[in-house]
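re: the backbone from monday

yeah here it is again, tokenized this time
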């Protein structure tokens, strides 16, 4: 029996995306910090496959190719003449698709081919950027993927250009922008970005990265309202960062402006309980596809899948081992002996305000002013 496609799954209930790939691979020692290009799919394929499988086991419906920043111009960006560029976009995308297929086969998951911004758009113009997007689309053409997703775009004009090449694959298209309350890099409003993404013909539109779950919900509400005002019906997606960054909400670059980025964000990681709460709030807001970006680990995706199991009409693969908020799992555990009945209730966990874990640390920091995102 053929597996259900993306649009059918979205029509039937929530679709759970996967989480961080490049960011998590870097923390594990398989990608270069700051560069975040995906050479690991060729150089350390076992590490990429393992992380894919962790997301699948946690309950993700989608395996997205580990192809972030996999364009020839990005692979060459900031490299000088003495540094050899050992891989090309075509070979990395092919390898990423092979790994995604292996992981997706374990739980009837969909495979998403990823697109991301290219330096050529800013440095050389639309014609050069189109060539980069076209090369990536061509790399996906014969790889038997289920849909394509553009993510991390901060310029509405660039994602419109990318969408025009994505559509040539005749697959469902998802468009995501890393926007918060101030809109895109040129100040185009959230509302205009939403409508323009929808008018490309994309099937799903929304946000990813840069901002945390709370800011993302605010942005998604504006996107939903803008589309409704224009009588446009689209499925919605959001994939925020896994870090709590309310102090970056007003900055156009979000958590990238924090002095802790990228090496000292760990104290800000959201709890699995906060992931449960976010999944419920996003679904009730009308978001159909819920996943995570930088900082989202497999246990966060597991929380999504557990929280939305009734709507999905199935439990995630880990349900026998990792049920949250009570049940038999807690009845004979060390934690139940320590805390007795209160630990078994959702009220206890939803009501808790966890400490930062870092004595004498400030509640928040000050985003860096005047920074430019490259």
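seq for it, each position gets an aa:
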């Amino acid at each position: 029996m053929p597996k259900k496609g993306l649009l059918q799954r979205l029509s039937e209930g929530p679709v759970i995306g996967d989480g961080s790939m490049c960011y998590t691979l870097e923390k594990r020692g398989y990608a270069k910090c700051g560069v975040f290009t995906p050479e690991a799919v060729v150089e350390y394929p076992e590490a990429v496959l393992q992380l894919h499988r962790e997301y699948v086991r946690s309950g993700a419906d989608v395996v997205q190719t580990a192809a972030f920043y996999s364009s020839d111009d990005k692979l060459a960006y900031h490299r000088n003449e003495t540094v050899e560029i050992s891989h090309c976009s075509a070979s990395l995308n092919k390898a990423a698709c092979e790994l995604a297929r292996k992981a997706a086969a374990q739980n009837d998951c969909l495979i998403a081919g990823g697109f991301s911004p290219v330096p050529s758009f800013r440095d050389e113009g639309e014609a050069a950027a189109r060539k980069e997007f076209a090369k990536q689309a061509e790399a996906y053409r014969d790889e038997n993927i289920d849909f394509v997703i553009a993510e991390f775009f901060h310029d509405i004009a660039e994602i419109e250009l990318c969408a025009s090449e994505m559509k040539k694959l005749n697959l469902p298209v998802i468009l995501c922008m890393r926007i918060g309350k101030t809109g895109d890099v040129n100040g185009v409003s959230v509302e205009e970005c939403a409508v323009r993404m929808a008018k490309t013909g994309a099937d799903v539109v929304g946000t990813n990265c840069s901002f945390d779950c709370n800011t993302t919900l605010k942005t998604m509400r504006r996107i939903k309202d803008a589309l409704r005002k224009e009588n446009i019906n689209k499925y919605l997606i959001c994939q925020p960062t896994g870090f709590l960054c309310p102090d970056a909400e007003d900055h156009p670059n979000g958590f990238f402006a924090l002095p802790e980025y990228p090496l000292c964000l760990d104290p800000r990681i959201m709890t699995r309980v906060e992931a449960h709460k976010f999944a419920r709030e996003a679904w009730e807001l009308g978001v159909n596809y819920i996943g995570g970006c930088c900082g989202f680990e497999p246990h966060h995706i597991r929380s999504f899948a557990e929280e939305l199991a009734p709507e999905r009409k199935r439990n995630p693969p880990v349900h026998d081992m990792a049920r949250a908020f009570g049940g038999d799992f807690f009845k004979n555990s060390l934690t139940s002996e320590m805390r007795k009945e209160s630990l078994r209730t959702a009220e206890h966990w939803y009501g808790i305000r966890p400490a930062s874990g870092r004595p004498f640390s400030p509640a928040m920091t000050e985003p860096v002013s005047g920074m430019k995102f490259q």
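The chain has two domains: 6-319, 323-354. Strands lie at 15-16, 62-64, 110-115, 147-153, 173-177, 204-208, 235-239, 289-290.
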